[in-house]
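User: tokens in, sequence out, please.
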């Protein structure tokens, strides 16, 4: 008789941590990515004296965009057109912005930079949050190009 595996239901924070670990992964070095994530969790705990999972969840929520900008060529001109994003595409984009912002920070080790970027994003400051605000600002400015019922 064959065994069947039961899938455990993951919490939302567990899913985001798994996604974070996958995005940190470079050249198959899963243990290194895990260690970086663990050190950044410890740094968040030490700096804020709060649950690091709540800080990360809040940071991801604050940096997740609800729109993206696609360019379309209409009549010889190129227009930026805002398109709504679902959570399945918005969350990875926000995580990517957080990781890129942490990589661009100067100074400390990557795990400290990542912890600082999570803390900043949870407070609605930092480069990742500003990137989201910039995208939303462009989308608001170009909302006139969105026609209701059209397939732009």
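Assistant: Sequence out:
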């Amino acid at each position: 008789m064959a065994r069947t595996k039961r899938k455990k239901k993951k919490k939302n924070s567990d899913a985001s941590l798994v996604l974070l670990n996958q995005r940190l992964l470079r050249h198959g070095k899963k243990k290194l990515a895990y260690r970086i994530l663990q050190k950044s969790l410890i740094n968040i705990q030490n700096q804020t004296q709060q649950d690091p999972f709540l800080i990360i969840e809040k940071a991801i929520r604050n940096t997740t965009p609800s729109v993206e900008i696609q360019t379309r060529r209409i009549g010889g001109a190129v227009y930026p057109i805002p398109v709504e994003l679902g959570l399945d595409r918005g969350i990875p984009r926000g995580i990517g912005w957080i990781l890129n912002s942490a990589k661009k920070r100067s100074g400390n080790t990557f795990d400290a930079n990542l912890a600082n970027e999570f803390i900043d994003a949870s407070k609605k400051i930092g480069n990742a949050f500003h990137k989201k605000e910039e995208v939303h600002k462009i989308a608001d400015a170009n909302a006139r190009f969105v026609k209701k019922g059209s397939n732009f």
